[in-house]
Amino acid sequence: MKKIYNPGENIVLQQLEGFVDAYSSLYAPLRDGRTSVVLKNHRSGDKVRLIVGGGSGHEPLFPGLVGYGLADAAVCGNVFAAPNPQLIYDTVMDLPGSAGVLFVYGNYAGDNLNFDVAEEMLEDAGVACAHVRVWDDCASAPRDGIQDRRGIAGDVFVIKIAGAACDAGLPMEEVLRITEKARDRTASIGLATSPGSIPGLDRPTFELGETEIEYGMGLHGEPGIERTVMQSADALTERLYRELKAEVRPLPGERFSVLVNGLGSTTLLELNIVYRKFAQLVRGDGLTIHDGCIDRICTCQEMGGFSVSLLRLDDELLKYYDAPCYSPYYAKEDRR
Question: What is the layout of strands, in order, in the sheet containing 36-39?
């Protein structure tokens, strides 16, 4: 597979060096140059700091969600691998403040373990910590096993809400409650049309036939819920809408934010067509789309396909969702 890497080099560090250099007015590296991205003008010391992170290879997630009204820092592991506890610890200790730290990350075994160890280290050092594990992928486990579900593009909604709650100066208990509420009102499902890759391997992460697709495929190539044949954009979208509707069980008049997320190689032209149909289905059921987003935020190298995420809003979450935020890859104007 032809990839634009430097053989034998630390590709995660190199890509972050490029990212920080391009947006140097916003970001700085960890003091010793390791794989963390820190917002230069972070929150004041009396506000809870928000740290996100996970394996690299899903860019712009997670560093692309560091910004004003978003996260204070992102801790980046190797490709598809959790960041180590020492790196997490050092990233937090590089930030000033005494109001505590909230970690938000996807629900994967390696991330859970390493962030838990880092929390213990930080608490021993006198830093108050809490975490929210995002488990929005409703194809990855049944509803009664929700804590086994994976985190995918719903991370975006949860981080957006958490960042606004931190900006509001709320105490840790309230920031945690609001972030968990956003997590528990977010659901996603996706499909793959072609595989992604892992740097250094000469084969794709999985195989699909020329006319095959897989519903519910995980972000790293984890098996989905059904392998079937390619269909039209409208038919694919209708299937995902039915799955999400069965999960969310919406009531007429409820408000939602919708994210149509490309997995890497799917073009914006295709994603726009998906959003068009999805919005028709939502409104056809008497529901309201408060805000829509079409982008490639949570990716898997050049994987083909897309996911759709729904955030069920109420008056409380709406206040934080509508607060302004900015990073080079995700921004919202103040709609309050």
Answer: 27-29, 36-39, 73-79, 49-56, 101-106, 129-134
